[in-house]
Design a protein that fits this description.
Elements: H1 2-22, E1 26-32, E2 37-44, E3 50-56, E4 59-64, E5 68-73, E6 79-84, E7 96-101, E8 110-119, E9 122-133, E10 136-147, E11 154-159, E12 165-169, E13 187-191, E14 208-211, E15 216-221, E16 227-231, E17 238-243, H2 261-266, E18 277-279, E19 285-291, E20 302-307, E21 313-318, E22 325-331, E23 339-344, E24 350-354, E25 373-379, H3 400-407, H4 409-412, H5 430-433, H6 435-444, H7 469-483, H8 491-496
Antiparallel strand pairs: 1-2, 2-25, 3-4, 4-5, 5-6, 7-8, 8-9, 9-10, 11-12, 12-13, 13-14, 15-16, 16-17, 17-18, 19-20, 20-21, 21-22, 23-24, 24-25
Length: about 500
Amino acid sequence: MRNLVYSWVVILAFLSCQTKSDFKIETVDFLKLEESYLEVATVADSLDVPWGMAFFESNIIFTEIRGKVKKLNLENGEISTLLSLDSVFHQRTPGLLDIAIQKNKKKEPYVFLNYTTKEGKKVTSNLVRYTLHTDTLLDPDNLLTVKGSTGHNGSRIYIDKDDMLYWATGDAQDNERPQDSTTLNGKILRLNIDGSIPEDNPIADSYVYAWGFRNMQGLTLDKSGKIFTSEHGDAIEDEVNLIKPLRNYGWPLVEGMVDTESEISKTKGLDIEEPIRSWTPVIAPAGLSYYDSGSIPEWKNSLLLVTLKSQSLRVLTLGENNTAITDEKVFFSNRYGRIRDVLTAPNGDVYISTSNNDWNPQPGFPLTSDDRILRIRKINSSPQEYIEEDVRSDTLALDGALLYKNFCSSCHKDNGMGVPGNFPPLKNSQRVKEPSRFIDVLLHGTDGKQPIDGVMYNEPMASFSFLKDEELSAIANYVNSKFGEGNRISPEEIKKNR
Ligand code: HEC
């Protein structure tokens, strides 16, 4: 018997050595900042939309959108499945979304998951607590359920060092809820670790901490406890917000700053909190992580934001008191595809996860190695070849192709074929062929209630009336020349129909 045990120990030791030496961390890029050189390397591949990541010991515990929770051992590269959830409702954007792990418990900490489920026609979004054992998650406890939908479920969860939980919920495609402080959608919610309402919440007996949100995709806290979120705008105005208790962030009355006549009149008497940064054209922001390590000095005290549509990592430098963004640098545009989440490890390494197997891959993706988790780490050598910060083009020339690419192709695609069941094709579209109806869609959007060529699209299209007459004319002429019958629409015709 002793021999048998001994030989098992030898075999196990051999096996684990093997995995260790087999664990190849493949360098994909070197990046040069002002002073530092960083290495970008693949630490895991062939994943299925790793949506949320959290750190535990020397592991990254991550979710996959179709319902798996996995553990990536960063010492030997092994990936094991901790939990397979059969009850997850996944379709396009809903599914198993974010994960957070209790920070101040070293052994068997709580793990918080957010996922959508569906019974009959009813979709709900659930915040469920588990306990982490070595190779599994046990003892599920459903802490809180809010209305879900086939889109706009958010969400992100964050647990701070004092065991306070924050949950950034989506509006569940219901425009009434974000402004109604008695519902839990389109809100920042604050909970105790057992799911109860904290006694010091700003509204007595309510989870609600702040409201007026559409579809938040990123949530992080800085070292003093300031809360930051990233959020998808409709067709314009993606945002990063600094969250304060009892504040109203405006959706759906306002997008971005309160700066149009209609926004000013709609919000009369309401005190709206504006974003600390907004983007038009949209970038589709996703995960957000506060970075305060000295290990990459150029990034110290910044928000790391990853994006889906613009497929980049953005470093948003925080100014004095962390109440404003003073600089923005963009990296990796279109190199790794859509990026879903970002995680700062205790040692200052940064991990990002790609999202190229999701419902909306961009041209050239997914790669056969997708989805990947990439590690970004400072190195002490200076490589011969490297990439640098991306050049930003915030102003668009009057170029129909470029405008189409920026404002339309994320949904209708470069080839004008759309996405079956989600976004209609523009190629051979009857509405594109009829100038007055095409202008109407551009200026006023659609209500999503009429079938197009026999197909119902469950989302309406937003209005693009914020674009100038000349820009809309350039887009319309491009669409007509590529996908229609070549009709011309002049800026004057657009103007007449405003
Ligand atoms: C966020 C995704 C999204 C973006 C961006 C977008 N659209 Fe759409 N578009 C849709 C959806 C969804 C519909 C179908 C809406 C409906 O059924 O009411 C649609 C419908 C249309 C239609 C009607 C098609 C038909 O055959 O009836 C046209 C034309 C159109 N879009 C043009 C554009 C143009 C031009 C742009 C860029 C300025 C654009 N769209 C940007 C989502 C989008």
